[in-house]
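User: New here, please read:
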Amino acid sequence: MFLENTANQPPGLFGLKYSNRDFTQKKAWGKNCFNSSLPASLCAYLHNRSLENIYIKLNSSLRVEHSNISTSSFYGIDPQSEDLFYAFEAQFTPYQQYLIGTLPGVDLVTQAREGRTSASHFCDE
């Protein structure tokens, strides 16, 4: 899945093979894009190295808990899958049922390339 370092390799980030961002374009490297692209790439890299992500959450008592989570569990799909699509600044359509009006986009929605939504991970600022 991952390209080896070659002289003709196009610009990109580790593991982000299929996405709606064109990393050959300068705007894909700007702050607003890079802030969501880099964490997604880092998650793919951690998976590739058999490492887990640090997962910070609130428990039922609203206290902060630290744990680990695999990228596969976090994304809802194997990050090395040929079926994974990174939809940046996209709508997480399962939330539409809870909203009156227009559903805002979020930083990242992981999807199966055939269109099934897997999970949403990074909130819009």
Residues 31-48 form the longest helix (18 residues). Residues 2 and 104 are 32 Å apart (CA to CA). The first strand starts at residue 53 and ends at 58. Residues 120-125 have pLDDT under 50 and may be disordered.
